Amino acid sequence: MTPEARRAQLVSAALDLYGARSPEEVAVEDVTRAADVSRALFYRYFSGMEELHVAALGSVAEELIGRVALPADGSLDSQLADALDGFLDVVGRHSRAYVALLRSGSVVSTGETDAMVDGVRDHIVDLLCVRGGVPDPTPLQLMTLRGWVALVEGSVLVWLEASRVPARSELRDWLVEQLFAMLGVTVARDPDAQFSTTPSALGTSR
Amino acid sequence: MTPEARRAQLVSAALDLYGARSPEEVAVEDVTRAADVSRALFYRYFSGMEELHVAALGSVAEELIGRVALPADGSLDSQLADALDGFLDVVGRHSRAYVALLRSGSVVSTGETDAMVDGVRDHIVDLLCVRGGVPDPTPLQLMTLRGWVALVEGSVLVWLEASRVPARSELRDWLVEQLFAMLGVTVARDPDAQFSTTPSALGTSR
User: Chain A partners of B158 at a C-beta cutoff of 8 Å?
Assistant: First the structure.
């Protein structure tokens, strides 16, 4: 096994273990047992559980960024629905890792995990600005988009706590509707804050 | 000076110093100089800057909770405007402390400061539920209210970064409008999620 494959195997074992308990409760022995490797091998790759947690949470953050890529064409609402489906799929599969990533009070919270969360947020806001044709958003537009991302995060936490009620598709549609309602309030107040919801320049210029 | 008064004096000196620089950059010597006390006296009250930071940020969190109390009568939008004015006033006076409170990656973030932030959030959501006549909110209602609180927090961070543009009263009105738009989306989807926006039961029953 290459070093990269071995590292990925340990990350994957950690993510599997997070399915049954929260990251704080996963110990080095649990990982070595699940991956069927020695402690010595574990410590060749990671200095300890904290480093493995950061790597595992980082892989979830990367997967989230990968899955929210907006397609280049179609209306904004259908693009958003697709992106949110991807987001909710990843969060659903890695719910404990996602909660740990967001819970700043958690044992595994570090400057690094916070930077990952900020990276996902900034990525989504940037995507929305590009897609909406506002490369240089006004303060109210930026508040609207960052606020909507915060709504997505907060809703997902409530959704996971509430045993995934309502259904994922309903949560997705509700989130899309919320963004449009929020953008509507902003445009009414800020005439420069027009946001393009028609097929994107990217899509139509091809 | 009583011990309580001395403690309050040191907290107040710390909050004043946060006006010019962020909490991470305030040292014990800065506080003892500003309060004109000896290092020995400082250490009689606090084990170090971290404990003083927590006490100072806690006093800001308490002030926020104190200022968002909704009056018992009037329409929900006028009540919210009053509560937000109070919130934005406290945040405006203690902007660095507020940013430090919210920035989970900051040096002064601890389980204690996170619990304070959660306390302010829960308090606002509870108030809104009581005021809106929904003591037992549905998951979508809870997502709407928590999401709006997240919008308030995120907007305030953008607002402080953007040199307080737009004007405070415009930010306040925009936030009230956003809550109504968000509640509107939720009611359309969730017929049980009716939220009372007329003068509250509390107010009218007197």
Answer: 139, 142-143, 146
CATH code of residue B10: 1.10.10.60
More confident site: B112 or A206? B112
- B84 shares its domain with B142: yes
Q: Cβ–Cβ of A178/B182 closer than 8 Å?
A: yes
* Spatial contact of A23 and A97, defined as CB atoms under 8 Å apart: yes
Residues B84 and B179 in one domain: yes
**Residue of A138, A185, A186 to mutate when probing chain B, most B C-beta within 10 A:** A185
| Nearest CA-CA distance, residue B14 and chain A, Å | 24
CA distance B135 to chain A (A): 16
pLDDT band at residue A118 using 50, 70 and 90 as cut-offs: confident
Residue type (1 letter), B29: E
Helical packing angle, B49-67 and B3-18, nearest 10° = 90
Q: Which residue of B has its CA nearest to A187?
A: B174
| ipTM at complex level | 0.83
Residues of A in contact with B164 (CB under 8 A): none
Helix (H) or strand (E) holding A124: helix A111-131
CA distance B66 to chain A (A): 24
Domain that holds residue B8: 3-51
* CA–CA dist A88, B192 (Å, integer): 25
Count the domains in chain A.
2
Q: What is the mean pLDDT of residues A50-72?
A: 89
- Tell me, yes or no, whether B96 lies in a domain: yes
Average pLDDT over residues B117-140: 90
Contact A168/A88 with Cβ under 8 angstroms? Answer: yes
